[in-house]
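Q: what does this look like with HMH bound?
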Amino acid sequence: MIPNVLTIAGTDPSGGAGVQADLKAFSANGAYGMSVLTALVAQTTTGVSEVHEIPPEFVTSQLVTLLDDVRVDAVKIGMLANAEVIRAVIGALDRYAPPFVVLDPVMVAKSGDRLLAPEAVSALRDELLPRVDLITPNLPEAADLLGEAEIEDPAGMPGQADRLAGLGAKHVLLKGGHLRGESSVDLLYGDGISEFLSSERVDTTNDHGTGCTLSAAIAALRPQRPDWISAVREAKDYLTEALRASARLDVGRGHGPVHHFHRWW
Ligand SMILES: Nc1ncnc2c1ncn2[C@@H]1O[C@H](COP(=O)(O)OP(=O)(O)OP(=O)(O)O)[C@@H](O)[C@H]1O
Ligand SMILES: Cc1ncc(CO)c(N)n1
């Protein structure tokens, strides 16, 4: 059976990040994709020009309307914009208890624009994080959640992942994409697992939406795989191939998107 996978996130008209990237990654990884919008974002490969936040009551309305009808096998949560939207999402998670929940704690776009109000970080950390199965922070997000300095060496990753797990997420995928070096190293941690996942660093500036793509591919694959480690490994391989395939795209003048190729077509 094809899994039904939901993204709760903001938009990107250029199709590289947010809901648009998530839906492409769901399809490419064998899932049926659905979306609930938290914010309309005027953005492209060069940055964000405006954010229109969806009223929290309407986020709830979208979630209840959908979840009263459709069985959801996994959820990916991306941009949440503010604390009221975070609480609307928590309300739906508590009511419908989807089997797998992946949280990409989106805070700042690659362009440096904020996608989560600074005062909402504590709601995300204290109220939402304990309810998710996997959190996928990059290094700046991990530092922000822990109130620590950003680490600059992979040797510091297990300690930070352990402290993030201490905040309540069952698993942590700490992404080292912001570190320089020959390879791009992430750490999957929690529930008895501590495994570095390394992939060849692709020499490209088409890295808009890499975090969205990875977390969405994990959510799509998890219901189809026996455990987190297999889903995460395969999603990372998919992302590396999508980064390579981005060489075939000509989209925008800034950080271009990755290309969501379909493996089975
Ligand atoms: N040039 C690259 N080559 C290979 N893998 C990469 C490259 N850049 C990032 N990655 C991988 O992409 C994933 C996302 O990492 P990153 O830390 O850049 O996320 P992010 O900052 O949340 O992304 P974004 O904000 O653009 O969505 C990680 O698995 C990371 O290792
Ligand atoms: C809507 C949205 N979510 C996440 C990101 C992170 O890159 C982005 N740029 N836009």
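The two ends are 18 Å apart (CA to CA). Strands lie at 4-10, 32-44, 47-53, 74-77, 101-103, 134-135, 171-175, 183-190, 193-200.
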